[in-house]
Design a protein that fits this description.
The longest helix has 36 residues. The chain has 94 residues and is α+β, with helices and mostly antiparallel strands. It has a 4-stranded antiparallel sheet, with no helix packed on it. It folds into 2 domains: 40 residues; 35 residues. 38% of the residues lie in helices and 18% in strands. It contains 1 helix and 4 strands, in the order αββββ. It starts with a helix and ends with a strand. The structure holds zinc ion. The site of zinc ion has 9 residues, from loops.
Length: 94
């Protein structure tokens, strides 16, 4: 009688293990299908670059820059600013 009870318990354990294995397989397959169906994300639009700032090459004539020609960017109407030392000066007439 005890052998029959042990055999029944073993059968129940094996049935439970088989059910768990089948559930794992089903969950894996379902997850794989769900991941495969996931939509591909749209590529991000390219970042717009700011418009290039126009500059002129001018001799700065300051102690820091010496007489080297450095880039001077517009700094208000009629003025340009040295890119190296920050000195403002009148824009050359074109
Ligand atoms: Zn300068």
């Amino acid at each position: 009688m005890a052998d029959l009870l042990a055999l029944g318990l073993l059968g129940l354990l094996l049935l439970g293990a088989a059910t768990l294995a089948a559930a794992l397989v089903c969950a894996t397959v379902a997850a794989g299908r769900a991941l495969r169906r996931r939509p591909v994300p749209e590529p991000l639009p390219a970042a717009e670059l700011p418009a290039p700032r126009l500059f002129v090459w001018l001799a700065c004539h300051t102690p820091r820059c010496g007489h080297l020609e450095t880039a001077h960017y517009p700094a208000g109407p009629g003025y340009v600013m040295c890119d190296q030392c920050g000195t403002h000066r009148r824009a050359p007439s074109s």
